[in-house]
Amino acid sequence: MERRRVPHDFLWGGAVAAHQLEGGYDKGKKGISIADVMTAGANGRDRDITKGILPNHYYPNHEAIDFYTRYKEDIRLFAEMGFRCFRTSIAWTRIFPHGDEEKPNEEGLQFYDDLFDELLKYHIEPVITLSHFEMPFYLVEKYGGWRNRKLIDFFVRFAEAVMVRYKDKVKYWMTFNEVNNQASVQNPWTGWTNSGILYQPGEDVQTVLQQAVHYQMTASAMAVRLGRGINPEFQFGCMLAMIPFYPRTCSPQDELAAQIAMGHRLYYYGDLHVFGEYPAYMEAFRREHGISLDITELDKKYLKEGCVDYIGISYYMSGTVSSVETEDSTRVADGIYLARNPYVEKNDWGWQIDPQGLRYSLNLLHQRYHKPIFIVENGLGAYDKLEDGTVHDSYRIDYLRKHILEMKKAMFLDGVPVMGYTPWGCIDLVSAGSGEMEKRYGFIYVDKDNQGNGTLERRKKDSFAWYKKVIESDGEI
Ligand code: BGP
Description:
The chain is an alpha/beta fold. It contains 14 helices and 18 strands.
């Protein structure tokens, strides 16, 4: 399997998001995004979300790695590795600084024109996420984020502006990054990053969550419909955080608990994107819990007409579900606990490392959806040490190697159509979860620490040459 080669048009590349690497948070008439009001946390300590930008607080996304001014240098390095594609997002606040303007900001549009031209100069295909945890902060303050139906129009206006402008430069689009991430309501910041929502004491979290999801799904479908009219060649993907849940034991109760967890945290979102309709168990859940949502007949029509072409996924880890409380478990709902899996290792942030889980995930998704799958995030966050001017990151190579091997097994042994693979954070960037710089994923080291000190100088790690060879050989590892 190590020697098997994937088709030559396979989309090898790397992935990032605007707010995690661009910096220049106030350049080019950009507005404040929800990422701009998140302070730095630490390993095991959440980031704070402040009411606007406050003095004496450190906001790591403001400068990030200054890709905003250094992108040419970075793209040259991506080209040297042989990237065939580069996944990034368009910062909504560069195009519509407040989010509710009628007309887009020309300076923001020009920035991405220049960025895409630079990529295309090296034949690197841009792969674009429209909303990656960085919506305008103003939309949160004035409209309550995705609690509000008006957000649909604002998002669609943004999507239309960029799809029209880049119709000859971008072919691959995704609407909402890890749209299902917000299902983990016990992480207070997932409602914020996905939807600009902080749950208020006493409100019914499920009602708020499901309403926001409905508006996002409708907005996604409307953007897809519109995009097909702008350029019929466009390919649209959803983007799901793929964390397959294994039952902790083979007891029927654990099996059922895992099935319910998968239904609520993954397929609910996937079904809306791919089939354009709600799965029956979500309708039942709403009936049983007396949840009533604002869903119109027109929304339903749009949902059906705006189904996606491919499934984008992030895959970092698997999870384990128990129906009963165990040592170390965390309760996520009645009779559903996240438990520890003794068969897999963890990284320094406690994320389960499970390469076989990737093959398992690709099969699950393909068996349900029969669509091509694009692995748009995968990777190892690690503490790197600079030695002799470089980083000897054999642990990262080992992680990626094992995952690519399982991806190839899914392709060759199981017949799963995988379109491409873009490891996360191909250049070191700000962690979304903790705001750290020192949770590093990159092939390229960036000289900056958790406090914001450093020269921002770029250096190739050992994994740089390794990944270059992988791409050159169409996936020999
Ligand atoms: C995904 C996000 C990315 C990214 C990645 C790694 O959830 O789509 O934005 O950051 O996870 O997470 P972290 O940065 O917390 O290590």
